[in-house]
Design brief:
This protein has 322 residues and is an alpha+beta fold. It has a domain of 206 residues: BirA Bifunctional Protein, domain 2, CATH 3.30.930.10. Helix content is 36%, strand content 21%. It has ten helices and twelve strands. The strands form two sheets. Strands 1, 5, 6, 7, 8, 9, 10, 11 and 12 form a nine-stranded mixed β-sheet that branches. A hairpin with a 2-residue loop joins β9 and β10. The radius of gyration is 20 Å and the shape is globular. The two termini are 12 Å apart.
Amino acid sequence: MSGDTVQNDWRPSATLETLRQRAELLHRIREFFSSRGVLEVETPILSMAATSDPSLESFSLLSPNRYLHTSPELAMKRLLAAGSGPIYQLCKVFRRDESGRHHNPEFTLLEWYRPGWSYRELMAEVEALIHALSSTPLPPIQRLSYREALLTHAGVDPFSCTTESLLQRLERGGINLHQPRSYTLRQLLDLVMAELVETQLTHAPPLFIYDYPAEQAALAKIKPDAPHLAERFELFIQGVELANGFSELVDGAEQEQRFRTELQQREEAGLSRPPIDRRFLAALHHGMEACAGVALGVDRLLMLLLGKERIAEVISFDFERA
């Protein structure tokens, strides 16, 4: 980097007024959870394990062999298994290769867990938080199942479509893929969601999409009465994904199998194969009460509340100025 660039890039990417509004938002988040008896906790940002999710990549530190966490989820669940009760955390998380208008490789995440709750109960609390933090009245947050969302906005039934029908639908939508035959059904459904559904939500009211396919369960519980569905939800505001929540999987054996499946998917995609978090699995085998949990992007929330166009406008120094 040239001296002139450094000289011109020392200033923050957010205005000082925005940083004051950011501080107020963090204060109000803490007030919200304090009033509801939810304990604030801190967990390490460095771990001997890393995410196995094929869609995410961890930053690694070679000496000692540690990884920056992409979420505090696994450490927080160890606290839950130890009997912590309801907990929340505001922390920095790190994800490689995520830069753009709505992304920064280092960002602030709000994550919380409610023992004894279902994902539907947690959706109501997410809505209460959003209303409490908004300076202007918001309409009730709408709810659509994953299937309803794809049928309504893309004319696709995710449970009866084929790779061929999805490729044709994407082509009609102006999405031309390089080597289209190399995509799996799940990857094509993800593209339909991102390119044909989320793009139509930009001017729509806030929306929860829930009951995702079991193949997209991540760390969510499978619905007992509908094994093709996961008890998972996402919140979209102005077309931006803001939160991702579950009824949490608490079966250690099932969780380990999911980790191994994801690691195999990473290997097939030519990605690194990081170590599994054995301490987290030990906590599940010890026993963790059924609960619901959710992660919410604080920087994105502030960006939406203030009407900003880029995430860089609501953080002190974006990745290019760090």
